[in-house]
Here is the input.
Amino acid sequence: MENSWIEEFYKETDADKRLELLENNSTDMDGDSAGSSTVFRQRLWTARYGKRKPKNDAFVGCLMELKYISEGGSVDIGGQKKKQAVEIISKLCLFDADKRSAEEQEILLYELKNAFLKFIEVSRGGRGFTSIAFGMGQLSDEGVAKKIADQISSIAFDAPHMLHMDKEFAILQSAALAAFRQEYPNREHFLRK
Here is the structure.
């Protein structure tokens, strides 16, 4: 990544702050309109949060849909899970991602990584997620890491494997690995790849 604002943009998980960073940096040094990479970031922004002030994070919603697909078992009566996965691919801008330029693939990877970071942040912050039984105790850091690894494995690896769609979800899988490695270094062995 070429600019410090871009690094900050992808580290930030608060949607309003990300929007502010994107708007403040949508022109280059000469005052010309934004380059193609910033235009692509803006398209991803719209796909993820909508056209107005961010309310819902569609990308994190897609991650949850993939989790439900993988937890629902491998039986796909009428191809409903496959249809749902194709919709998710479209929502996540993964359709024909391998045919995009290397720069756009990298931008998409970082945006999806940011969605996984948001997912991890929300999961860790949930009291029910970190409690052992009926809120009577808290999981250790190692226990939380294993639980998050299990969820990320379900989302990024189990669902695509089950649907035979690893190629379509390749960038999502790379983003999941990058986010997990960032948050839990040296614990990649918890993931089911």
User: Anything to note?
Assistant: The two ends are 27 Å apart (CA to CA). The chain has a mean pLDDT of 85. Residues 4-190 form one domain.
